[in-house]
Design brief:
Layout: H1 2-18, E1 23-24, H2 25-31, H3 33-38, H4 45-65, E2 71-74, E3 80-83, H5 98-110, H6 116-129, H7 156-165, E4 169-173, E5 182-194, E6 197-204, E7 209-214, E8 218-224, H8 236-247, E9 251-260, H9 265-270, E10 273-278, E11 281-289, H10 292-297, E12 303-307, H11 309-324
Antiparallel strand pairs: 1-3, 2-3, 4-5, 4-8, 5-6, 6-7, 9-11, 9-12, 10-11
Length: about 325
């Protein structure tokens, strides 16, 4: 059925693009085989007309949704005709310099995994056909930059589609301090990658507030809902700030930790001061914001929190939750 519809839409588009004058419904009906079959023997006149009209209106709307500009023209006799002018349905030539082409190629390399790889490759092929310089190889293997954004979580794709289509979702989520996952009903805003982890920012309907969810803690299947969003979606800059704040990017104070020598290099890069303690340990002062406890837990026995007390307690709680499974 999907193939038949695609073929019917293609035939209708070709008819509308290939004509120099508006074509009436009757002419289109007689020119496209699928419409002829819809009006074939065994149907009453009224029934065949209704079937064709419904099919034609759906197809016309689908083509317009795909971007085809279809004009409706009324002739002197009052008959309505349709056509798609080529000058209204052609894009200007794309010209890219070497730097712009390299930037697009670099962006495409980021997505060379999962189902996004096909879309990225297809986009580059279209750009090549539209004027991408021949001396630019987007997949040059010897470049200095080899960007990758890992997408291992099964929840990534359904959440990406839900963000695009503005569809609420339902999933089970296990907090770092919880032994069991809990159901969450969320209006998804955007997905953001931070420190190698993917996060979903959105509106938690059950809690009536914005929340950020780490995708690796989503368990089971993401189910979409047909209801509408109940709150406005913030702009992309605000969403990124929300993720950064929840994931620990925005720090308003400092924490003092003890770190094993030769370990925790990401923590050392963030440290404002480092002091050697001897016996294989160093003392670091690092920015402290929301989410730091979850980050410190990832370093396991190589990190000991000295102060503040609430951060130490949060880290201990998380470690106990991990130990309990």
């Amino acid at each position: 059925m999907a193939i038949a519809k695609a073929e019917r839409l293609m035939n209708l588009a070709l008819c509308l693009l290939g004509t120099r004058r508006p074509l009436s419904k009757r002419e289109l009906r007689d020119s496209i085989e699928a419409y002829v079959e819809a009006s074939g023997p065994g149907r009453g006149v009224a029934g065949s007309d209704d079937s064709f009209n419904r099919m034609f209106e759906r197809d016309k709307d689908d083509l317009r949704e795909l971007g085809l500009v279809i004009e409706t023209v009324e002739n002197l006799d009052g008959e309505v005709g349709y056509l798609a002018r080529r000058d209204s349905n052609s894009l200007p030539a794309i010209t890219l310099d070497a730097e712009e082409a390299a930037a697009l190629g670099l962006a495409a390399k980021v997505w060379q995994q999962a189902r996004l790889a096909g879309a990225a490759s297809g986009a580059l092929q279209k750009l090549r056909a539209a004027g991408l310089p021949e001396d630019v190889d987007p997949y040059e293997a010897h470049g200095a930059l080899e960007p990758r954004i890992p997408v291992h979580e099964a929840a990534f794709e359904p959440l990406m589609l839900a963000c695009r289509d503005r569809r609420p979702v339902l999933f089970d989520y296990r907090k770092a301090t919880a032994a069991r996952p809990e159901p969450r009903h969320v209006e998804p805003w955007a997905l953001e990658c931070w420190r190698g982890h993917w996060y979903l920012a959105g509106w938690d309907r059950d809690r009536g507030a914005e929340r950020v969810f780490r995708l690796s803690r989503i368990t089971g299947r993401v189910r979409s809902r047909s209801t509408r969003f109940t709150v406005p979606v913030p702009d992309v800059v605000t969403v990124r700030e929300t993720v950064a704040s929840w994931a620990g990017e925005i720090a308003d104070r400092s924490a003092l930790i003890r770190l094993r020598s030769g370990a925790g290099y990401p923590l050392r890069a963030k440290a404002t001061t480092i002091r050697e303690l001897g016996d294989g340990w160093d003392e670091l002062e690092i920015p402290y914001g929301h989410g730091l406890d979850a980050w410190l837990v990832e370093f396991g026995p190589d990190v000991v929190v000295l102060e503040p007390a609430e951060l130490r307690a949060d880290v201990v709680d998380r470690l106990r939750a991990v130990a309990k499974g």
